[in-house]
């Protein structure tokens, strides 16, 4: 009988590239996809008819109990910019512990997709994950922590759409200072590493992996490298801080009408990114995947090839 793998934030960009690899192996894995919204429940139920798609409230221990019941593994992605992240994380860790202590338990592995440098206390979305990591490490559960950086994929749709711009030097609007450097992660690389960790399980017990795809590069260099793929000389225009907060609130929460305790994380992130980026070394990812990480330019080329193949 196939084992149950639970994935949270199943509608998000990370799981979007993890699920297809596991879904192809129904004799090994039965997927339980955890969503928050009704919209995602309907979309994933249609997209993955052989998976179990469940709408759950991570604030509710009964709900957490239902999503972990009978599972061997949880791949835990934490909801974006939520002020309740720590509560959700500790609830799910407590529930996994209870599940692992049942006499007939099948529970074996808690994988937390966290963030690069959770120790950065100036960033709320990092600091909250630091506390979840601490709780997990002390839980006695077999765990693996994966730490991706800022995803190169975040702005790639907007950048690739500039290929249709009639001018040779289109403008890209950046939410933060383009001269600040980042080590980017690529969702594909992160998903491939995640699937490997799920499949290989005990080889990765009690490990924490910083997973970045590139060495530090200026945000403007990231933009220019994708421009070169498109044959465009992209000019970067930086939004004012207030405009950038507005843009991010619309992007992440769908509206400007959002509680201050949700806005806090966005406001601090943009302040931080105007002065400092997230930097790391791609060596661990390279070791895990047996190949170098994907550069933003390679990602752009891959996505253009996929778009062309879809049209044909
Ligand atoms: N973006 C980056 O560059 C980056 C880099 C490193 C780490 N991260 C971390 O990645 C995590 C997000 O993962 P992602 O990028 O794959 O997701 P995403 O594409 O940002 O999608 C957001 C997800 O959050 C879910 N969600 C929202 N509110 C929820 C709630 N109250 N309870 C449960 N789920 C909720 C949504 O589910 P529904 O669709 O059902 O509402 C959706 O699946 C965050 O913790 C973020 O800090 C992001």
TrEMBL record:
The keyword Phosphoprotein does not apply. InterPro entries: NAD(P)-bd_dom_sf, NmrA-like, NmrA-like_oxidored. Keywords: NADP. SUPFAM superfamilies: NAD(P)-binding Rossmann-fold domains. One of its GO terms (cellular component) is nucleus. Residues 3-245 form the NmrA-like domain. Coiled coil: none annotated. It comes from the Eukaryota. Pfam families: NmrA. The keyword Protein biosynthesis does not apply. Belongs to the NmrA-type oxidoreductase family. This is NmrA-like domain-containing protein. It comes from Exophiala bonariae.
């Amino acid at each position: 009988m196939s084992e149950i793998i639970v994935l949270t934030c199943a509608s998000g960009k990370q799981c979007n590239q993890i699920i297809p690899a596991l879904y192809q192996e129904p004799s090994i894995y039965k997927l339980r996809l955890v969503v928050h919204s009704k919209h995602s429940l309907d979309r994933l139920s249609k997209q993955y008819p052989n998976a179990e798609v469940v709408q759950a409230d991570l604030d509710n221990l009964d709900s957490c109990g239902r999503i972990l019941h009978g599972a061997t593994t949880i791949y835990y992605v934490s909801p974006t910019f939520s002020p309740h992240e720590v509560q959700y994380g500790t609830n799910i860790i407590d529930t996994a512990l209870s599940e692992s202590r049942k006499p007939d338990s099948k529970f074996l592995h808690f994988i937390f997709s966290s963030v690069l440098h959770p120790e950065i206390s100036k960033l709320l979305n990092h600091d909250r994950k630091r506390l979840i990591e601490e709780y997990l490490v002390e839980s006695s559960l077999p765990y693996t922590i994966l730490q991706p950086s800022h995803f190169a994929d975040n702005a790639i749709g907007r950048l690739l759409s500039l290929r249709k711009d009639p001018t040779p030097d289109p403008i890209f609007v950046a939410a933060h200072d383009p001269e600040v450097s980042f080590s980017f992660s690529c969702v594909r690389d992160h998903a491939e590493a995640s699937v490997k960790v799920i499949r290989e399980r005990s080889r990765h017990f009690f490990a924490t992996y910083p997973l970045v795809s590139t060495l530090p590069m200026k945000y403007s260099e990231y933009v220019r490298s994708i421009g070169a793929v498109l044959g465009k000389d992209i000019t970067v225009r930086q939004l004012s801080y207030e405009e950038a907060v507005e843009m991010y609130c619309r992007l992440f929460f769908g509206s400007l009408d959002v509680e201050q305790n949700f806005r806090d994380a966005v406001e601090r992130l943009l302040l931080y990114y105007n002065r400092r980026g997230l930097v790391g070394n791609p060596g661990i990812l390279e070791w895990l995947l047996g190949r170098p990480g994907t550069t933003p330019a390679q990602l752009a080329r891959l996505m253009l090839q996929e778009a062309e193949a879809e049209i044909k």
